[in-house]
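Quick start: what a row looks like.
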Amino acid sequence: MLLTIVLVVIIVLLLATVSIFNSLVTKRNRVHEAYSQIDVQLKRRSSLIPNLVETVKGYMKHEREVLEEVTKARSALMHAGNPKDQAAADNQLTGALKTLFAVSENYPDLKASDTFKQLQSELADTETKVASSRQFYNTNVLDYNTALQTFPASFFAQAFHFLPEAFFQASESEKMDVKVNF
């Protein structure tokens, strides 16, 4: 009888351990999948940048530093290797694009260009998708990090080296309005 009780307790503990471990793995994988969705949208946006720069170049000959900043920010985003670097590069590119579109207001012929309008529309659509992907990622990070901190999963998280994930956050400069000086 005692042996049966001990075996049942061991089996229950083993099943609980497997269940908690699998739950943590599932949540971590959801975070990684959500991050890959951000990556897809950022790459889509980056692929639009060269066309935008080429379209704008002819109209904005006196705004070379704005175009260089967009190109530099795009390059940083393409070479970012982890979520933190990618978030920083994305914030830099978003700021550069805001400045570009603010400056474009001074070029009526550019604003009237069908190519520019189409690229601006595609970028706006992509920005919406990036924001949605960020929100989805952050929701999954919250769920995963909460699971790591709750009892009894916190014991297993430490034992199996599950580490918290970072949220995808906007930089302070991205939160501010764009100021354009002429």
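That is the whole record. The two ends are 87 Å apart (CA to CA). The chain is about 80% helix and 0% strand.
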